[in-house]
Structure formats: structure tokens, C-alpha cells
UniProtKB/TrEMBL annotation:
It is a multi-pass membrane protein. Keywords: Cell membrane, Membrane, Transmembrane, Transmembrane helix, Transport. Gene3D superfamilies: MFS general substrate transporter like domains, Multidrug resistance protein D. GO terms for cellular component: plasma membrane. NCBIfam families: efflux_EmrB. Residues 10-486 form the Major facilitator superfamily (MFS) profile domain. The chain crosses the membrane at residues 12-36, 48-68, 80-102, 108-126, 133-152, 164-182, 194-214, 226-243, 263-288, 294-312, 324-344, 356-375, 455-481. Belongs to the major facilitator superfamily. EmrB family. This is DHA2 family efflux MFS transporter permease subunit. Its main location: membrane. It is found in: Cell membrane. One of its GO terms (molecular function) is transmembrane transporter activity. Pfam families: MFS_1.
Length: 507
């Protein structure tokens, strides 16, 4: 039942918890070299601090629909925040790498539930006509936290130990946990349902296998047995999982929500955008640091104005959504995204730092007009009892599409770089006069570095061009968006009619 006055105090507590959880997800990436040095571990081992975190998210987020329906908001959030706080504390004092890795897994088990829970509370607490503004505020958490993470992390690592990353988060997490114990109440309705253990196993293998396989492809290559093996196993488990859910009266994750056209369309657009969004997050640090030699902290600062713009625009976009709907905002935002992505495909070795900042900021401005309005429009069409499934589905698919997008873009960049490097090397060899004296070792090294830089730039340019095409696909899809008519307004107020219509929609 929607409340007349939304519980703003409760939502604020959930906001803080979700913010530190998402911030923590991106904080550690910059610190991985420092951790490798301190614990004397190899890159393949240290990468599990990020990969393991993502895998736990991929396993638990699909199950969040069950948890949200089965347990009260207060119990669920306190459990999630308690696990996150415990994991943060263990990470800050970890004496060996194994303890740090276990701490990250515990953190992830808590943070995985926070985002779906917060989204579900927002959908329940606010009427449809005010959801845009509410979800716009939620967008600050979803968008700004991961964008600020690398910049903040870069500055902290330059001045302190990696443990400061956890020491910074710990008191905020602890305060949020204490506030939750005394202030939280229940908003979403509960019902007595049982967890299908076999579904949970299939979901874990399916989503976990896909996430691990695609995330490892950029490092190990598509031909590695661990990569294609986990993808194949994950895909088979996922197919069995989906078929099982469609046959269940009370599924762990309701796939029949894709029968609602605006939800299906919004999900498709969001996933395509997630793939395009990752291109700049992956490619920009490579270009700025590896090719241009700009420091990590300046690389992070380059992306900061874009994060600030997204944070400012998120609530504004939410209010515009309530007034004009998602279609207009999505078309404008995706047009900006397509144009700026194309300009990124034209950057050179001489492109100025200020030009990169402006271009990246405009790209984030475009993105800010798309993600939350499109997602909210899709969720608005779902019946209230399907809100937990809608939020769980969106969060899960964005994790998977982000992993797939990253893997594909890294592969495209590496392949293009290798081809261009061979071309440039052949040209350089044929241009050398056989009668001339051999270049010195220093000159040869400089030439090799120049070839590598030009080849890598070609790879980055080509990958941004692919990203432009991906964003253009989302733009075409956005043309078909219609303002979602809320379920309660579509049906008769007669309860028997409601039950009959819902049964017909899901059969």
C-alpha cells in the first residue's frame, strides 16, 4: 500500500548505505597495484578482489526478489549493512591476502541486497506521478558513487596506505547500521514464500558463469578453456533456470514480467547503454595514462566533472521525466551520447586535456538523461507485486551486460591494436634505407614505443566507433518508448477483475 507521506528518514538511511556500498565497489580498482606489492601476490590473484566481488553480486542480486518479499525491510537492511560493515572492518585489518579476499566477499554479500531493496522501497513509497523525481534522487547514488570512486581512490593511494580506503568507509557504514537499528521500519509488503534451492543453484551457476567468463576474456583471451567453458556452462544453467522459473507458480525470479512491453523495452535500452557506458570507463584511463603518460590522479580528475554533472542532473532529470516522460529525455540524451562517442573515436595523440574533460563531461550529461528515466518508465508498468522482480532483473542484467560489453570492447581494442601495430612495423621496416647505418638501441626503442602508442590509439578510436554504433542502437529503440500506463490505472478497481486480469497476463 502506497503511503501518503513517503518515509524520507528511512530512505535517507538506505541512500547512505547504498552509496558507500557502490562507492566501495570502485574504490579498490586503483589500489590493486599497492595491494599486490604489500601482500606479494600476482595480478591473477589480486584481480579476484574485483572479480569475486562482482561474482557474489551476480549470485545474490537475482535472489534479492525472494529476500525482499520474504523478509521485512528493516531485518533485510540490517543484515545486509551488518555484513558489509563486518567485511569492511576485516579488510581494514587484514594481515594476509586471503583474509582481505574473504572480507571483500562478505562486503559483496551485503551490498548486493542494498540496491534492489532501495529501489523497491522507492517504488512502494512514492506514487507513480512522483516516482521520476524520487528515482532521480536515487540516480545520484547509482551514478555518482562509481564515478567518484576512482578519483577519490587515486588521491588516497598517493598519500596513504590502501587500508585508508576501508578506514574511510567503516565509520559511515557503522553509523548507518546504528541508525537503521533504531529508525528503520517496514514499507514493502511481505508474504510467506519458500526459496527453491535448485533455482538458487542454477542462478548462481548461470549468472556467475557468464560474469566470470566474460570478465576473464579480456585478460585470458576467448580461446582459453576457462573462458569459453564457464560461458557455455553458465549459458546452459541459465536456460534451465529460465525454463524452471516459467513453470513455477512462485518463481525466484519472475521472467514473465517481460510480457509488459515498456518494461521489456526499457530493459533492452538500459542493457545496451550499460555496454556503451563501460567503453569510456575502460578506454579513457588506458588512453590518458598509458599513451599520454598522465598521472592516475589527473586521470581520475578528468572524469570528476562528468560525475558531478551526472549528480546534479539526476534529480533534475527525474522531475523532467514526471512532466514530459522518458521518450523525449532518452532521445535527447542518446543523441548527445552518440555524437560525443563519435568525437571520442577521433581523438589523437595531441588532443588537449581540457578537450577531453569537456567531451567526457558532455557524454556523461547525455547519459544522465537516459538511465533512470528509461528504467523508471519500465518499472512503472509492472504490477506492484512484481516490483521486487523488476528491480532484481534490472540490476542482474546490467551486471551481465556490463561484463559482456567490457569483454567485447577490450577484445575489439586488442585485435585492432595488434593489426595496426603489424601494419606500422611493416611500413617502418620498408622505409629504412638498407645502406644507412643501423639505429641506436635508444632510437629503436623510441620507434617501437611510438608504433605501440599509435597502434593502441587506433584500437581505442575504433572501439569508440563501435561504442557509437551501440549507443545508436539504443537511440533507435528509444523512438518506440511510450509513457507507461500504471497497472492500477489499466485495470478495474474490482478485486476479482484484478486477479483475473493478472492471471491472464502471466499465463
Amino acid at each position: 500500500m502506497t503511503e501518503k507521506k513517503p518515509p524520507y528518514g528511512m530512505i535517507a538511511i538506505l541512500f547512505i548505505g547504498a552509496f558507500v556500498a557502490i562507492l566501495n565497489e570502485t574504490l579498490l580498482n586503483v589500489a590493486l597495484p599497492s595491494i599486490m606489492s604489500e601482500f606479494e601476490v600476482k595480478p591473477t590473484a589480486v584481480q579476484w578482489l574485483s572479480t569475486g566481488y562482482m561474482l557474489i553480486n551476480g549470485i545474490l542480486i537475482p535472489a534479492s526478489a525472494f529476500f525482499i518479499q520474504r523478509f521485512s525491510d528493516k531485518k533485510l537492511f540490517i543484515t545486509a549493512m551488518g555484513l558489509f560493515t563486518l567485511g569492511t572492518f576485516l579488510a581494514s585489518v587484514a594481515p594476509v591476502f586471503g583474509v582481505l579476499l574473504a572480507a571483500r566477499m562478505i562486503q559483496a554479500s551485503g551490498s548486493a541486497i542494498m540496491m534492489p531493496l532501495l529501489m523497491n522501497v522507492m517504488l512502494t513509497a512514492f506514487p507513480v506521478e512522483k516516482r521520476g523525481a524520487a528515482m532521480g534522487m536515487f540516480g545520484i547514488v547509482m551514478i555518482t558513487a562509481p564515478a567518484i570512486g576512482p578519483t577519490l581512490s587515486g588521491w588516497l593511494i598517493e598519500h596513504y596506505s590502501f587500508r585508508m580506503l576501508f578506514n574511510l568507509v567503516l565509520p559511515i557504514a557503522l553509523l548507518t547500521l546504528i541508525l537503521a537499528i533504531f529508525k528503520l521500519k517496514n514499507v514493502t509488503p511481505q508474504r510467506s514464500i519458500n526459496l527453491d534451492v535448485f533455482s538458487l543453484v542454477l542462478s548462481s551457476i548461470g549468472f556467475g558463469g557468464l560474469l566470470y567468463g566474460f570478465s576473464s576474456a579480456g585478460d585470458k583471451g576467448w580461446g582459453h578453456p576457462l573462458v569459453y567453458g564457464t560461458i557455455i556452462i553458465g549459458a546452459i544453467a541459465l536456460i534451465v533456470f529460465v525454463l524452471r522459473q516459467l513453470r513455477m507458480d512462485d518463481p525466484m525470479l519472475e521472467f514473465r514480467i517481460f510480457k509488459y512491453p515498456m518494461f521489456a523495452l526499457s530493459s533492452a535500452i538500459s542493457n545496451v547503454i550499460a555496454m556503451a557506458l563501460f567503453s569510456a570507463m575502460i578506454l579513457m584511463p588506458i588512453y590518458v595514462q598509458t599513451i599520454r603518460g598522465i598521472s592516475p590522479i589527473d586521470s581520475g580528475l578528468l572524469m570528476l566533472p562528468g560525475a558531478i554533472v551526472m549528480g546534479i542532473m539526476s534529480p533534475i532529470t527525474g522531475k523532467l521525466f514526471d512532466k514530459y516522460g522518458a521518450r523525449t529525455l532518452a532521445i535527447i540524451g542518446l543523441t548527445i551520447t552518440v555524437v560525443t562517442s563519435y568525437y571520442f573515436s577521433q581523438i589523437t595523440l595531441e588532443t588537449s586535456y581540457s578537450s577531453l574533460v569537456i567531451l567526457y563531461t558532455f557524454r556523461m550529461f547525455g547519459m544522465s538523461m537516459v538511465m533512470m528515466p528509461v528504467m523508471t518508465n519500465g518499472l512503472n508498468q509492472l504490477p506492484p507485486q512484481n516490483n521486487p522482480h523488476g528491480t532484481a532483473m534490472n540490476n542482474t542484467l546490467q551486471q551481465v551486460s556490463g561484463a559482456i560489453g567490457s569483454a567485447l570492447l577490450i577484445t575489439v581494442m586488442n585485435n585492432r591494436t595488434e593489426i595496426k601495430a603489424e601494419e606500422l612495423a611493416e611500413k617502418a621496416t620498408s622505409a629504412v634505407d638498407p645502406s644507412a647505418s643501423q639505429p641506436t638501441a635508444e632510437a629503436a626503442a623510441q620507434m617501437q614505443q611510438q608504433i605501440l602508442n599509435e597502434a593502441m590509439l587506433s584500437g581505442i578510436n575504433f572501439t569508440f566507433l563501435i561504442s557509437t554504433l551501440i549507443a545508436f542502437v539504443a537511440l533507435i529503440l528509444a523512438l518506440f518508448i511510450k509513457r507507461a500506463v500504471p497497472y492500477k490505472e489499466e485495470e478495474s478497481e474490482d478485486s476479482d477483475s484484478l486477479i483475473t486480469t493478472y492471471k491472464n497476463a502471466t499465463e
